[in-house]
Amino acid sequence: MTSMTEGTSAHTRRVAWVTGASRGVGRGIAAALGAAGWAVYVTARSCAAGRTGHLPGTVEETAAAVTAAGGQGVGIVCDHADDAAVAAIAHRIRAERGRLDLLVNNVWGGYERINAGLWEESKAPLWEQPLEVFDAMFTRGVRAHYVTLAVCAPMLISTPASLVVTVSNAVSADGDGGGAYAMAKLADDRLALTAALQLKEHKVASVAVHPGWVRTEGVMQFAEYIDLSQSQSPEGVGRAIAALASDPDVLSLTGQALSVDTLATRYDINVSS
Question: What pTM did the predictor assign?
Answer without folding.
Answer: 0.93
